[in-house]
Amino acid sequence: MLGFNMFFAGFALFLNGVSYFVPFNRKMLGYVNLFAAAFMSVNTLAGLYFAPEEMSGNYANAAAGCAFALNFLILGVHHIKEMTDFSLFGWFALLMSIVSATFLVQACIAVPSDWDWLFIYLWSMWAVLWGQAFIASGLKIKAVDKLSPYIILANAVFSLIVPALLILFGVLL
Asked: Which residue range forms the structural domain that includes residue 61?
């Protein structure tokens, strides 16, 4: 399920990044974000519910999946309502950067496996993305906001779409 969630999150995030350069209809962009949120929520909760008994205790990953979904829900509502103040999202991003850092630390100290490097990389990228979103949207520091589209696009491609495809094709995990 991780590959599916990352795939759709990547496309929504990519379109959010492109929207800095190409004027999209904000409501349509909002619906893309809402689709990603709904898909990720249902997929994460169904995966948790239907997981084998030994896997159903993996609540941390389910919580992370739902937090990603909430990210896209907040963005979707902001775009559909054509809100210009993204400070709510910025402060949510602060919490998510802290959560990402926590998952990063957990990946660093976990029992070593072949895939720990992947999760270390992914959680690092996401911590940077949300940290930047907090600084740009929560604290409203415009100099950082100029970097936003580049950080968003890099994360969309290199921390979501490419790893998702590798997971879906069975190369990773």
From this structure: 2-168
